[in-house]
Specification:
344 residues, alpha/beta, 3 domains, 22-stranded mixed sheet, 7 helices, 22 strands, 24% helix, DUF4097 domain-containing protein, Toastrack_DUF4097
Length: 344
């Protein structure tokens, strides 16, 4: 089977879904496959991790059935929604000065189709660029919580190659950059489509989520870090947490130089690459369809290492490592790939 055949079969299996939803799923897969191949993944590898089109379709169909009742239950009355819209204010050029005397301890960003970046700086700053000129930013403040709402899409239509060349700049996602100067109690980002980047931020809690797009972070310090994506790579580097949670359905998980007491790392359809994590810690790393590669910089003294690969091979450089006492447990598992542990 080739990738185009996989897409064709998947589309057939999804015929029970409404046409707009079916088209959305197929376009999502095409986009992610293209991105993966641009990053170096081969057609053979992608077919292996994607699996049977029928099983993939069953998952989307099941999710659709489950989600519809929830949407009906949680739907808010029209008058309540109207009140919320009215409470929001447009972000203007004076936005930074408007916030200078307000103590903000929680930052929330809700994005539709945007590349979002948050980084440390001496004073608060914001930069927003919409290539389609259709994107907009609004904000609201409630109990020391600043919420920034992004709306707008890059749904640009074109009929010919020449038309595409003229409009290609408009295909770029909106760009939002936030400069944040001090520690936060919590930072929450929920982005539907687009990459999220966070650098050198200190907060008690990080809750970062994307539907389509990767999450790339470095230099973070906090008690709890939660990074999730439906379709995208998760990468955390040079950071310090007490608890680290990373989960993606279709993407890789990369963690390097990240200290934590507990790690929870799961990917449905991707590889896991770990380097220089805390040697003595509770850890669970599971890739259902990809490989798990781990590099220790020093031998654990109090951690029992457990490895399992249902289909692939296991290579464990610490297989004969003796620990003084078992205080922690590290599990490295793959259902359809290999597990490799090295020491350097």
């Amino acid at each position: 089977m080739l990738l185009n055949e996989f897409i064709t079969e998947l589309e057939k299996e999804l015929k029970v879904l409404p046409e707009p939803r079916r088209k959305e799923i197929i376009e999502d897969f095409k986009m992610q496959i293209q991105k993966a191949m641009e990053l170096g993944d081969t057609e053979e590898y992608l077919l292996k991790i994607l699996g049977d089109p029928r099983k993939v379709a069953e998952k989307f169909i099941a999710d659709e059935i489950i989600q519809k009742p929830e949407e009906e239950i949680t739907a808010e009355p029209a008058e309540i929604k109207e009140e919320k819209v009215k409470s929001r204010q447009a972000v203007t050029g004076n936005f930074a000065s408007e916030l200078k005397d307000i103590n903000i301890s929680q930052l929330t960003i809700n994005g539709e189709t945007a590349e979002i970046k948050v980084e440390s700086g001496k004073k608060f700053g914001i930069k927003f660029l919409s290539y389609t000129h259709k994107g907009k930013l609004e904000y609201e403040i409630n109990n020391n919580q600043l919420t920034i709402h992004h709306s707008g899409t890059n749904d640009v239509k074109f009929n010919t190659i020449i038309d595409f060349m003229k409009k290609r700049k408009q295909l770029k996602k909106d760009e939002l950059v936030i400069i944040w100067p001090h520690k936060l109690d919590m930072i929450t980002i929920d982005n539907k489509d687009g990459k999220v980047t966070i650098n050198d931020i200190e907060a008690e809690e990080f809750r970062i989520k994307t539907k389509e797009g990767g999450i790339y972070t470095a230099g973070l310090t906090g008690n709890y870090g939660e990074f999730t994506s439906s379709m995208g790579t998760l990468k955390v580097e040079s950071s310090d947490f007490r608890n680290l949670y990373m989960e993606t359905e279709m993407g890789r998980i990369v963690a390097g130089g990240v200290k934590a007491e507990r790690y929870h790392l799961i990917t449905e359809l991707g590889k896991i690459s770990l380097d220089n994590l805390t040697p003595d810690s509770d850890l669970k790393a599971l890739s259902k369809m990809g490989s798990v590669n781990v590099n220790y910089r020093s031998e654990p003294r109090f951690t029992k290492i457990v490895t399992r690969a249902n289909v692939g091979k296991v290579k464990n450089a610490l297989e004969n490592n003796k620990i003084a006492e078992q205080l922690y447990r590290a599990e490295y598992m793959s259902e359809m790939g290999s597990v490799k542990i090295t020491l350097s």
